[in-house]
Amino acid sequence: MKTAKREAELKVPEEVVGKTLQDEDLFLSSLPYVVAREGNNVTLRFRRFGLFTLTKKFTVSLASKSGTSATYALIAEGSTFSIILSYVDGKLKTEVNYSGEREWIVSKYIDTIAERILNNYHKELKKYETVVVQAG
């Protein structure tokens, strides 16, 4: 299994974070390497060395959710992504896990997937960021 984690600081009301992290359309639009999308199914393509390719159709579901976290599962025959989005102590976090077919191809892209998802959610949530002004 290959894992990548990313985080960014952000001061946003928790109720906004919870709704945003659980927005399946935003999640689907945040996924990189998508070559086709049909409902909750996405086809992802990964290449390595220009010779080896993995193209798979995954079914995407919101596997679990709670206040300020959401876990998405992307499942295809023989391959699984688990993507965890959370907001803890003023930090937006992503964790991407992959296990399955041609892991040696996909592993090269795990860091980029975590980074792009984090950046997209950070950009979306930044609209609601609170500014703390101290008198002094």
Task: Give average pLDDT, whole number.
Answer: 91
Strand residue content: over 45%
Summed up, the helix count is 4
Q: How much is the radius of gyration in Å?
A: 16 Å
Give the strand order of the largest sheet, numbering strands 1, 2, ... along the chain.
1-7-6-5-4-3-2
Low-confidence parts, pLDDT < 50 over ≥5 residues?
A: none
Order of helices and strands: EHHEEEEEEHH
Instruction: Find the count of extended strands (DSSP E, 2+ residues).
Output: 7
- Structural category: alpha+beta
The percentage helix is: 25-40%
Written overview of the protein:
The mean pLDDT is 91. This protein has 4 helices and 7 strands, in the order βααββββββαα. A hairpin with a 2-residue loop joins strand 2 and strand 3. It is α+β, with helices and mostly antiparallel strands and 136 residues long. Helices cover 26% and strands 47% of the residues. The protein has helices spanning 14-21, 24-30, 103-106, 110-126, and strands spanning 2-9, 34-38, 41-48, 52-66, 69-76, 79-88, 91-100. It has a 7-stranded antiparallel beta sheet.
